[in-house]
Write a structure and sequence with these properties.
With about 160 residues, the protein is an alpha/beta fold. The chain has a single domain, classed as Alpha/beta knot. A five-stranded parallel sheet has the order 2-1-4-3-5. Strand 3, helix 3 and strand 4 form a beta-alpha-beta unit. Helix 1 runs parallel beside helix 5. The longest helix has 19 residues.
């Protein structure tokens, strides 16, 4: 069974996002052993300076990088990453080499350059801006869709 991890900075505060995550994790349980690990967001003041943001991202990077495992495929969600269609994306979580796949979702300020450099793939979900919590649900939905596509199973469009 495929092993997929999502490392996410911060938690899901809204019940409807947590419920959506729970539903997609349940749906995917027949395709993969998938886990979501929420990592602590570095504290920042209400109106942080660029330097304060960089320091926070580096602190978060240490926690993220310490959790990466040798041999896994690492996908960082990043605004400057490439975009894919759902059929193109379907190859990512169902890695043909059989490697475990880890998706990394940074804070609302993104990911440090060190984390992006450690990734095998930088992925942008859209050119549009979405609430941070919604991005996690969107990623889960696309992973679920990817498994349905790879197996030739029907799924709504």
């Amino acid at each position: 069974m495929r092993k997929i991890r999502i490392l996410a900075i911060g938690g899901l505060k809204e019940k409807f996002f947590a419920d959506a995550q729970k539903e997609y994790l349940k749906r995917m349980s027949r395709f993969a052993d998938i886990t979501v690990t929420e990592l602590k967001e570095a504290p920042l003041p209400a109106d942080p300076s660029q330097k304060e943001i960089e320091v926070a991202l580096e602190k978060e990077a240490g926690d993220i990088l310490a959790r990466l495992r040798p041999g896994e495929k690492v996908v960082a969600l990043a605004v400057e990453g490439g975009q894919m269609t759902s059929p193109e994306f379907s190859a990512v979580p169902d890695d043909s080499a059989g490697r475990p796949v880890t998706f990394i979702i940074g804070s609302s300020y993104g990911l440090s350059p060190r984390v992006k450099a450690a990734a095998d793939l930088r992925l942008s979900l859209s050119e549009l801006t979405f609430p941070h919590q919604l991005a996690r649900v969107m990623l889960l939905e696309q992973i679920y869709r990817a498994f349905k596509i790879r197996r030739g199973e029907t799924y709504h469009k």
